[in-house]
Specification:
Helix content is 63%, strand content 4%. It contains 20 helices and 4 strands.
């Protein structure tokens, strides 16, 4: 029998290899640059790792400037053991129990698919199907809710409310038909901008806990469906504002859509300047309400826009402070992520600016002198919370400042409308005909 001599011979060869291994490694290290140059000089399509028998596996190689995927080659059957065996050697070896494999599938295997992927032992078919991507079918009754989430209905409601406040503050008689048309057109423009924003940010929203359940991320509707919905909101929205209200308001509505989708959305991944551009987008709706009522751009409209512009910094900076991890995973360059100290300073700066803007309302003829006095308590309170947020930078202080901003803006606009200066004190009565101001 040859089993024992072969074993001894293999042991001697192994010992010699172990002793020679350090010398071989040193030789390879000395010849490393030459080998690397030789490997780089050979084309990738000629010499690849798949030619080595012990590295046969599924791999992806690059040859000719294109990627191509090769399937795992079939395993060769092991050669039968020789009949001559040494009973003294194998008598203590116990036979392994036979593996119970699932019955083979009736369908022939697809070409280019590895057998390891076709057969997963011990995993039920139902469990494997749950892990795969499946198309989500939405019933017609659920489309309304999907559209509401796609258009960010709460944010759209806030935009329409600020536009209505701008319309109400205009020093002209109230026209219900123009008011409804302006509010509807502004809301549709906001729905379009929010939908296009979600269409562009699907890959990044999927990495954030706050946005991973949006309709496009979950696949509840197709991207083409979302774009069609955005177009069906943008075209009639801007058309209503331009044709039924006045061209200036229509221009501002179209400008807001472009700023939000083409400037603010890509800037979120490039620079912290996105926060200032986003504040400008939020400042335009009350100006649109003013221009819808008067047909002109006055100092009062700019002051209303300044209120919304400054309010957004304590509101958004405190919100983004507790979402820094999410924004970082999504790759967004927010002040709270890249410039945390600046984020807190800007929030405090614009919280204090709200008091100065309130003091400018009476000189510009927007309100009586009562407004700066009765709005001082809420302005001082949001300034105090912003100061605490600037000093400690804790999550709790950021949360208090954010929740304060939620009720501060409606209260401020309500007080402003309550203290609105009567029309007779604006230098003569004014009326509107088709959205154009005429003195009487």
């Amino acid at each position: 029998m040859y089993t024992a001599p072969c074993s001894r011979l293999a042991g001697r060869v192994g010992a010699v290899l172990i002793l020679k291994l350090p010398e071989s490694v040193a030789v390879v290290q000395r010849r490393g640059p030459g080998l690397s140059l030789l490997a780089h000089s050979c084309p990738a399509a000629c010499v690849t790792f798949q030619h080595l028998n012990f590295l046969k596996r599924q791999y992806v190689t690059k040859g000719g400037g294109e990627f191509r995927q090769q399937a795992q080659p079939k395993r060769e059957r092991m050669a039968a053991l020789p009949e001559e065996r040494d009973d003294a050697v194998i008598r203590d070896v116990q036979e392994l129990p036979a593996l119970r494999l699932p019955p083979p599938s009736q369908t022939p295997p697809q070409e280019g698919v590895a057998p390891a992927r076709e057969m997963q032992a011990g995993v039920p078919q139902e469990a494997r199907s749950e892990r795969q991507w499946r198309e989500l079918k939405v019933e017609k009754g659920e489309l309304l809710g999907v559209y509401a989430r796609l258009s960010k209905i709460k944010l759209t409601a806030l935009v329409a409310t600020t536009a209505a406040a701008g319309f109400a503050m205009a020093p002209v008689p109230f026209d219900p038909s123009v008011f409804l048309l302006a509010s509807l057109g502004t809301g549709l423009a906001s729905c379009a901008a929010n939908s296009i924003n979600q269409y562009f940010e699907v890959p990044f929203d999927s990495n954030m806990n706050r946005t991973k359940n949006r309709p496009l991320v979950r696949g509840q509707i197709s991207p083409l469906h979302a774009v069609a919905f955005a177009a069906s909101c943008a075209v009639p929205g801007v058309g209503l504002l331009a044709l039924a209200v006045n061209p200036l308001t229509g221009f501002l509505g179209a400008l807001n859509i472009v700023l939000y989708t083409c400037c603010y959305t890509p800037l979120k991944r490039l620079s912290i300047a996105n926060t200032w551009v986003g504040a400008l987008v939020g400042a335009i709706p009350p100006i649109m309400g003013w221009t819808a009522a008067t047909g002109s751009l006055d100092a009062g409209a700019l002051l209303l826009g300044a209120f919304l512009y400054s309010w957004q910094f304590p509101h958004f900076n405190s919100l983004s402070w507790n979402l820094r991890e999410d924004y970082s995973r999504g790759g967004y360059r927010m002040m709270s992520v890249t410039h945390p100290a600046l984020c807190r300073r800007v929030a405090l700066r614009h919280s204090l600016a709200l008091m100065g803007l309130s003091a400018l309302a009476p000189p510009l003829g927007l309100s009586t002198w009562t407004f700066p006095l009765i709005s001082l308590p809420i302005n001082l309170y949001i300034g105090y919370l912003a100061l605490r947020f600037q000093r400690d930078g804790e999550r709790a202080s950021a949360r208090r400042l954010f929740f304060c901003s939620l009720w501060h803006l409606p209260m401020l606009l309500l007080l402003l409308i309550t203290c609105k200066k009567p029309r007779g004190e604006h230098g003569g009565a004014q009326t509107t005909v088709g959205g154009q101001v005429q003195d009487s």
